[in-house]
Specification:
Helix content is 28%, strand content 24%. By secondary structure, it is α/β, with parallel strands linked by helices.
Length: 552
Amino acid sequence: MGTDSHLQPQLAADPSDPYRREAQTFPELNDDMAGRVAAFGSVEDWPDGGMLFERGERSVDFFLVLEGAVEVLDANAKGCEHVVHVHGPRQFTGELDLFNDRKILVSARARPGTRVARVERLDFRRLIASEPDIGEVVMRAFILRRVGMMLHGEAGIALIGPAHGAATARIESFLRRNGLPHRQIDTETDADAGGFLECFQLSPEDLPVVVVRGQTLRRPSNGQVADALGLTVELDPSHVHDVAVVGGGPAGLASAVYAASEGLDTIVIESIAPGGQAGTSSKIENYLGFPTGISGQALAGRAQVQAQKFGARLLISRGAVGLDCSQTPFTVRLDDDTEIKARAVVVATGARYRKLDLPNYAALEGNGIYYAATNMEAGLCAGQEVVVVGGGNSAGQAAIYLARSAGHVHILVRGKGLAETMSRYLIDRIEASDRITLHPFTEVTELEGERHLEGLRWTDRKTGETSRRRVGALFVMIGAVPSTDWLEDCLALDSSGFVRTGSGETFFCSSKPGIFAVGDVRSGSVKRVASGVGEGSVVVSSIHRYLESLRQ
């Protein structure tokens, strides 16, 4: 059984589309595998038109088709249903949301003569853990299906608004970084925009708007979008977790993977999206095991699935605003007035880029001033000159990535060059590119534009000479400010606000027993993805020792 015909023109146009790779995206298990799957569940007959699950449900089961066929249904933003795929014998339902408690994005309906093996949620996790060859096939298929849904803008989610608007860019970034398939309708250029505005009785003052299953969210916050999409998980305020990891960057995700894989009841709290600052990197090429490089978002996505496979829960779009460390279990207070209790806490909130002190800077954030160079930002400034401020690896990666589509990339640094702050392989590429120019001893001194950045001036600090350029975007990647304001007075911090930790066996232990710090937020840490992952994995041994001390 194949993909529905409405996708065929897109398939022909994009050879990288996972829907073209049916053997991996919609695999047929062999008879031995199918028998082993069925042993974990029960065999059921379904009537023609019976719904195995419906979009918006949580905690749906896994179904393997034994006879007949199952249709997977998607609905567009206006509620019109269409068939995405038809699963035949020995094919299975599901995608990444089977590993978490989020609302499912699609529906499934039985065709005549359908018999399935139904594997309930807990048994599905047991299946994946105990049958690794089957788990590998299922995991690969689930990831590819989500990539396909992203590519085709499925799942009935529409983002309507001006692409260059700060609020539109914020929501688009939130959806993309969380791997949520959607269709973007740019009211500045899209011919369909007028029809959508009329259909949902919207005015320009309402924009941006997110449409989910007919529900219209006007100028929503990230949290409101997450709630409407069922991205948030339901919390039991009385439940005490073994470990609460605050921050979903490389260090936090590594902590979650290792803690959950070793049987600890683990929850991850992340205010925006898994990956942290590293999740915005266009390509990381010096991370062990990926010789051709991997994007920060792809690395974060894999780590997130890995953590969930072992049972960790991810609480997305909820930020920590306070920590009560006066007694155990500790209490993490969230920005929606809920609380999470845990016997141990891992602080992995990382650091954020500093901002430039310039007039009109705040008004232009998201309207031409960005802190990440992903496909979305690159598309907004394609063919135009852009400026990258900063001399670290993130700035170098951004400049190289942007040079593929921008008219020209200017790198501005306050010092004499890049050698002291950037990896050599990035410097070599920058020096070899005729589309990138480095400007040492230079800083931005003026911004131009009201609703969107239109140009800027920079000044050579040695000569005092000023240059004016029309630019499509300014990417600011300078310095680091630790995200520790939510810790209140619980932990000892260094003079820059980073968390102080111990040495030896207490290397990741903060001044408060039971609270640990890893990654960029830790004082003295090496600000690298690999370092963060290493710290996040190693800290789990310290957590085990602490939890064992509580039992004595």
